[in-house]
Amino acid sequence: MINDTVVELSRWQFAATALYHFLFVPLTLGLTVFLAALETVYVVTGKSIYKEMTQFWGKLLLINFALGVATGLTMEFEFGTNWSFYSGFMGDIFGAPLAIEGLMAFFMESTMIGLMIFGWDRLSRGQHLIVTYLVALGSNLSALWILVANGFMQDPQGAVFNPVTMRMELESFTALIFSHDAQAKFVHTSIAGYVTAAIFVAGVSAFYLLRKQHIELAKRSFRVATIFGVLSTIGVITLGDALGFVGAHAQPAKIAAMEAMWKTEDTPAPFNLMAWPNQEKQENAWVIQIPYVLTPLLTHTMDTKIPGIEEIEAKNALRIKSGIQAVEALKILSSNPTDAAALEQYKAHEQNLGYGFLVKRYAPDQDASKATDADIAKAAKDTIPDVFSIYWTFRIMVGFGFLMLAFFIFAVIYSLRNDIENHPRFLRFSVWLIPVPFLACEMGWLTAELGRQPWTVYNMLPTWMSASSHSVGYMVFSLIGFVSLYSIFIIIEMYLMVRAIKRGPDEAHDTNDHGKEKSLGGSVLGGNHAPVHAKTLMNEQSSKEV
Predict the structure, then answer these.
(1) Predicted pLDDT at 300
(2) Cα separation of 191 and 401, whole Å?
(3) Can you say whether the dihedral through the CA atoms of 325, 330, 333, 337 is positive or negative?
(4) SS3 for 348-383, per residue?
(5) 3-class DSSP state for residue 170?
(6) What is the CA radius of gyration of the chain?
(7) 525: which DSSP letter?
(8) What predicted TM-score, i.e. pTM, was given to this entire model?
(9) What pLDDT, in 10s, does the model give residues 242-268?
(10) Is the pLDDT of residue 521 over 90?
(11) Torsions phi, psi of 475, nearest 5?
(12) Strand 271-278, strand 461-462: pairing
């Protein structure tokens, strides 16, 4: 039996590396699309200010992309090193989307980002725009295949367990790709990246406006980012509702935990706006409820019952008893695959095989047939994830989402009225808001992954079975090493970003490339900087004549 401490340390290591990596992913997803939009405006209008904007934000994208690659490459190796049983059990399904992501999306994105950054003087406007679109496409396709793999872990579709080979085997690639969880999560995650990029661009632009630097670039970037952001935030909130609808059907235990719903309520069920869950007592210490909201929110009906945690535990106890029968039949089939009686018994209980695996953790000698009622009760309680963590990570994510929506609404109003510079407090708030979308994304990831426990593959493969049989000392050393290395990456990222932001866009572009256009643009934007540019140009001309 794998040491429980090794399993927990393996979880902590993967969680740490994933959380570090996910700090880079949303910004990359969003900035690539943002740059495609900016460069499209440049190609259509011919205004070089948009070229400068694309080049400047492209430099920040390059920094983020490079560090994102450095933190992401090791994660795929962790499946083989720390989760070897999972890799063998699920490799036929999990390996395909990861291979496609590496061969198609990642290499396309990596190649095209080099052309995008260094090809301005070597490609025509149209050619460079195509390259930028391919960068955006590659980054989003990369996210798609990763989330297809993750979607299978959340809601296994398109595969069956083969009792002869003792492995999961891919049955329908189409069902794997187009599972409801994978598609909803892909769109939700991608749009969350757009929100992250919009907040980042708005915050950096606000920093320049507060310092009276690069005014034209900052004002235009702020305006585009806020319009981009308000639409994306509405989209991410809407898709969050879609994910809740999918989750209510696929993962009822996660939904019950997210809502701290211990008992099945009469319909329409109330929504626990705020609560303090106590999982040991299966009650909320205090609660603020909104009547009749939860049922239509999750099921889009007024009369569909949402099972509470007590009901889910009772049903799962029955599934565990059925799963024990599947495990026993599997033991016979492993030595005699043609045993008709065992095969019939397995077919009758195969949908609950994972629950039979789950109880082996507590059964004497890991023999599911020896599991007592107490062992089954323990395993049934395990099927409910940590309610307190999921309840609050979900609400922090949602709270941040509505905070950003409110910010973007005011930002769009101020920007379109062309008086954003007259609101220094709001600009300072914009700068301080930069970390919020990153935290919201992390909270969303924690909600999804903690809510899947105790499974690596929902209802099929328990987490306790999935880890490799390393020593505790090895895992402690590995965890410390990864956290230290990734912390260094974060420090490098922040240093390079801050340095690039302080330097701002290239001075050559800032004064020479479109100096005349700046003076016109300043008056169009309602600023008072046109006379400054005109005076500068006159002084330069006088100096040349002298």
Answers:
(1) 84
(2) 12
(3) positive
(4) HHHHHHHHHHHHHCCCHHHCHHHCCHHHHHHHHHHC
(5) strand
(6) 27
(7) T
(8) 0.87
(9) 777 777 788 999 999 999 999 998 888
(10) no
(11) -70, -40
(12) unpaired
